[in-house]
């Protein structure tokens, strides 16, 4: 009997190689950074680390503003944006599970929420946003998810921001870029965003546990006038400590070290432009593969994600069986999200995945389809 090929040794690993849309595969060098000796958090060592990360994040976000780093998952920063930037009314655009969640977070914070839904698989467009602002405005902010991980749709956030700035200059633009940041370019200042948040465990390819958020000056100005900002995610408190390169409460020191190693790699070894190009190439490769094998693509044409492809299961394959087969080879992909389970499946190409690794995954799926 011939052994199945195993070019990366994945079938011998205790856990499968992740092709799911978060957490993503973390490089050994980044994992190992977490094993360094512990330090006190009120030390110069910590401040130096925090300052270095801050400078790196401003480069990656292309911003002159600050980037808050909190020990939480990304959802913590969804809540922070609402608490700090919304006095009363927020318009939440919903085209999938994570954008829906943001509307629930806003309602949970006691704000008045106008929810504008489009069909899953569709993008949030500048025209839709313009209409909603005219119909439902004024609003303190809008929320939009850049890359809906549940559907594989990328919405044109730069164009949306331009429209909001024109029609409703006092309305803040809050963007969830959890599964797109570090996988595609997000020039925060050029686009005129107000909050752009992300998590460590998606395209950044770090372990979960950190949330990052670039925040504009005008949000901090408004935060001064808003009651009930809470404590843990109070932007003004975070800002006060950030000025001294530290955090109000104990930071996740090991995770910060991992993030620093990974940001150094992204910025100074791979380079952001190469990283974005690689994501675009892997996405293109995955889409071509899906179509040429007789599957469909769930996301609307023109808005397909560079970091995760939602394959429409038009062949009606058994997605569970596919994943069982893949796991026997040391890999795993994701089934469709919620109601889209089995009707779609998701192949993530975010993080540090190479062309060769992607090729091998697709070949192995072919093997399953052929058998
Ligand atoms: C994963 C994800 C989230 C949730 O992030 P957590 O870090 O799990 O809180 C929110 N939004 C999007 C678009 C996501 O992909």
Describe the structure.
The protein has two domains: 10-26 and 272-370, Aspartate Aminotransferase, domain 1, CATH 3.90.1150.10; 28-267, Type I PLP-dependent aspartate aminotransferase-like (Major domain) (Aspartate Aminotransferase, domain 2, 3-Layer(aba) Sandwich), CATH 3.40.640.10. It has helices at residues 28-33, 44-61, 74-85, 97-108, 126-136, 157-167, 188-191, 217-223, 235-242, 253-270, 272-292, 319-328, 355-370, and strands spanning 17-18, 66-71, 89-94, 112-117, 141-145, 147-148, 153-154, 172-176, 195-199, 210-215, 296-297, 308-312, 331-332, 334-335, 344-348. It is globular and about 70 Å long. It has 13 helices and 15 strands. The model has no long low-confidence stretch (mean pLDDT 97). Helix content is 42%, strand content 16%. The protein has 371 residues and is α/β, with parallel strands linked by helices. It has a seven-stranded mixed β-sheet with strand order 2-10-9-8-5-3-4, with helices on both faces. A four-stranded antiparallel β-sheet has the order 11-12-15-14, covered by helices on one side. A two-stranded parallel ribbon has the order 1-13. Pyridoxal-5'-phosphate (PLP) is lined by residues 22, 73-75, 98, 145, 147, 149, 176, 178-179, 199, 202. GO terms for molecular function: alanine-glyoxylate transaminase activity; L-serine-pyruvate transaminase activity. The modification N6-(pyridoxal phosphate)lysine is found at residue 202. Belongs to the class-V pyridoxal-phosphate-dependent aminotransferase family. It comes from Ardenticatena maritima. Keywords: Pyridoxal phosphate.
């Amino acid at each position: 009997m011939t052994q199945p090929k195993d070019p990366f040794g994945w079938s011998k690993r205790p856990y499968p190689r992740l092709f799911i849309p978060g957490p993503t595969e973390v490089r050994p060098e980044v994992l190992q950074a977490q094993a360094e000796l512990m330090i006190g958090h009120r030390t110069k060592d910590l401040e130096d680390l925090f300052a270095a990360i801050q400078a790196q994040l401003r480069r990656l976000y292309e911003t002159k503003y600050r980037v808050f780093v909190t020990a939480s998952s990304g959802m913590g920063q969804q809540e922070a944006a609402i608490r700090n930037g919304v006095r009363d009314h927020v318009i939440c655009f919903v085209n999938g599970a994570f954008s829906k969640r943001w509307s629930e977070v806003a309602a949970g914070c006691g704000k008045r929420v106008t929810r504008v839904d489009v069909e899953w698989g569709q993008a949030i467009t500048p025209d839709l946003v313009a209409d909603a602002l005219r119909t439902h405005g004024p609003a303190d902010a809008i929320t939009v998810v850049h890359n809906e991980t549940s559907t594989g749709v990328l919405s044109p956030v730069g164009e949306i921001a331009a429209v909001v700035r024109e029609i409703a200059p006092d309305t803040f633009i809050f963007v969830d870029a959890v599964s797109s940041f570090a996988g595609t370019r997000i020039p925060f200042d050029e686009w005129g965003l107000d909050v752009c948040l992300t998590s460590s465990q998606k395209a950044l390819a770090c372990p979960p546990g950190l949330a990052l958020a670039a925040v504009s000056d005008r949000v901090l100005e408004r935060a001064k006038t808003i009651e009930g900002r809470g404590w843990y995610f109070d932007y003004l408190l975070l800002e006060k400590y950030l000025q001294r390169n530290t955090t109000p409460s104990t930071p996740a020191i090991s995770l910060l070290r991992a993030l620093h190693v990974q940001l150094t790699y992204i910025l100074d070894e791979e380079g952001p432009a190469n990283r974005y190009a690689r994501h675009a190439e892997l996405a293109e490769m995955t889409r071509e593969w899906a179509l040429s094998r007789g599957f469909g693509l769930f996301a609307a044409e023109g808005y397909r994600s560079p970091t995760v492809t939602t394959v429409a299961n038009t062949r009606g394959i058994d997605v569970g069986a596919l994943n069982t087969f893949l796991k026997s080879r040391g890999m795993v992909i994701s089934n469709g999200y919620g109601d889209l389970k089995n009707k779609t499946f998701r192949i993530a190409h975010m993080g540090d995945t190479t062309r060769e690794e992607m090729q091998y995954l697709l070949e192995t799926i072919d093997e399953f389809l052929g058998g």
